[in-house]
Q: What sequence folds into this?
């Protein structure tokens, strides 16, 4: 089984996947891991600019689905029966995983209903890339939509994980998801 998450920036996608990895002892890989690996192989310092350049270089040379295809290859070469994938964005990424793993691929849409709540949580994580206002957050959402068609990706999800409440509410939601949905799909 391969589990991945989509959603707008700041909804808790990686938090969800990291919690599942830690709680249920699943290995996790991200598209960013592959980009960093390739940049290092190319002898580049792992700066944001170099990582963007590496992404562009390999996608230009090999196509839009290069990175998800690399992840699929790594998963299939591993001996782990279950895997988590971070960094999926456009529908083309999802299509690669659905083709490779069929009904053993599970996509979760992590959702926060209120942009103000999402913004406050993003501020708490302290990342420079998150912007300085709810308005900037919404502008970033529009930009992400234009590039990655994130709303289309979210529509492809098998399960919606609400992240509107407390951390304990979220943990309870993950447990419910695992017990009542995911267990049946595990190898």
A:
């Amino acid at each position: 089984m391969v589990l991945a998450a989509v959603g707008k920036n700041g909804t808790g996608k990686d938090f969800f996947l990291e919690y599942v990895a830690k709680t249920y002892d699943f290995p996790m890989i991200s598209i960013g891991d592959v980009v960093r690996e390739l940049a290092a192989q190319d002898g580049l310092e792992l700066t944001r600019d170099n990582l963007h350049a590496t992404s562009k270089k390999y996608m230009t040379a090999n196509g839009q689905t290069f990175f998800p295809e690399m992840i699929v290859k790594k998963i299939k070469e591993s001996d782990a029966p279950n895997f988590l994938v971070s960094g999926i964005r456009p529908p083309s990424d999802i299509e690669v995983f659905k083709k490779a793993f069929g009904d053993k691929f599970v996509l979760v849409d992590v959702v926060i209903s209120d942009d103000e709540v999402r913004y406050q949580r993003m501020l708490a994580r302290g990342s420079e890339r998150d912007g300085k206002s709810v308005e900037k957050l919404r502008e970033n959402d529009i930009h992400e939509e234009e590039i990655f068609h994130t709303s289309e990706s979210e529509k492809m999800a098998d399960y919606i994980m609400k992240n509107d409440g407390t951390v304990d509410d979220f943990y309870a939601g993950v447990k419910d998801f695992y017990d009542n949905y995911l267990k049946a799909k595990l190898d």
